[in-house]
Specification:
The protein is of the alpha+beta class. The chain has helices spanning about 5-30, 35-40, 45-50, 65-90, 195-200, 220-225, and strands at about 55, 60, 105-110, 110-115, 125-135, 145-160, 160-170, 175, 205.
Length: about 250
């Protein structure tokens, strides 16, 4: 595509706005502002909400209702369950929304962004890397703390209010328990033995392998964003795309 100077400036700002959108996702995610994230950062158009998706290694939550149920409702119940031992240990600690997250800490970064905006300017593709940690404490003063690593993919779409998250994929590479050497992490640890996957992923509505840490970044060259004219499901990061599929099941770009 050949752009005028004005069009080039618009696209530069589009890229910056996409970066800031994903940066804000990392902040909302780290601070458990999940309802606010869905309201502020995700698609608001009714048709886009029907096809919105959130994916982990083990599959996709499709549609904003399913995303909200997992990402907000189930997460809130998890936080109430974690609060219960504190309430039992100290009657002055109330089981209320204000105390959710007591004894816990988390941080999710969004680094090394790679972004391509479609030639038609309606969508964009994002790839980044998430480095962070989660720590869950207990009333006795101990805590389970883990470092986590994983790729992040997203389809972003332009709506009336600006760029919004449409399809988000949070792949998980490895979990390292704080105080343990990275070299001690089993190379072939199944998802069922990974504490972060057990805490975060749940049971997606569309269950299939989106990312297999056994083989690492086997498909990263095929999955990473690259120049494109307009959005197609097969190339995107939603449940109808190639992401996570073996070579022989993929449609060519």
């Amino acid at each position: 595509m050949v752009y005028t100077n004005e069009e080039r400036i618009d696209r530069i700002w589009d890229r910056e706005n996409c970066v800031q959108l994903m940066n804000r996702h990392a902040i909302y995610y780290s601070n458990d502002m999940r309802r606010a994230e869905l309201d502020d950062l995700w698609v608001q158009d009714r048709e886009n909400q029907k096809t919105a998706s959130l994916a982990y290694n083990n599959g996709y939550y499709v549609g904003m209702d399913a995303i909200s149920q997992h990402y907000v409702v189930e997460r809130e119940q998890q936080l109430y369950d974690r609060l219960k031992p504190y309430c039992q240990a100290d009657p002055s600690v109330e089981s209320c929304r204000e105390n959710l997250g007591l004894g816990a800490s988390a941080m999710h970064t969004s680094t090394t962004p790679l972004i391509y905006i479609a030639d038609d300017g309606k969508t964009a593709r994002f790839q980044g890397y998430q480095l962070g940690y989660q720590s869950v404490g207990s009333p006795d003063g101990t805590a389970e703390s883990y470092l986590e690593f994983g790729l992040v993919y997203a389809d972003l779409i332009r709506e009336e209010g600006g760029w919004k998250i449409w399809h988000l994929v949070l792949e998980h590479d490895h979990t390292v328990e704080v105080g343990h050497a990275y070299a001690e992490v089993p190379v072939l640890r199944p998802d069922s033995e990974d504490p972060i996957i057990q805490m975060d992923c749940g049971t997606p509505t569309v269950q299939r392998t989106v990312f297999d840490p056994f083989y690492g970044w086997e498909y990263i060259w095929q999955d990473m964003p690259r120049p494109y004219e307009t959005y197609r499901d097969v190339d995107g990061y939603g449940p109808n795309g190639n992401l996570g599929k073996p070579y022989y099941e993929r449609e060519r770009r």
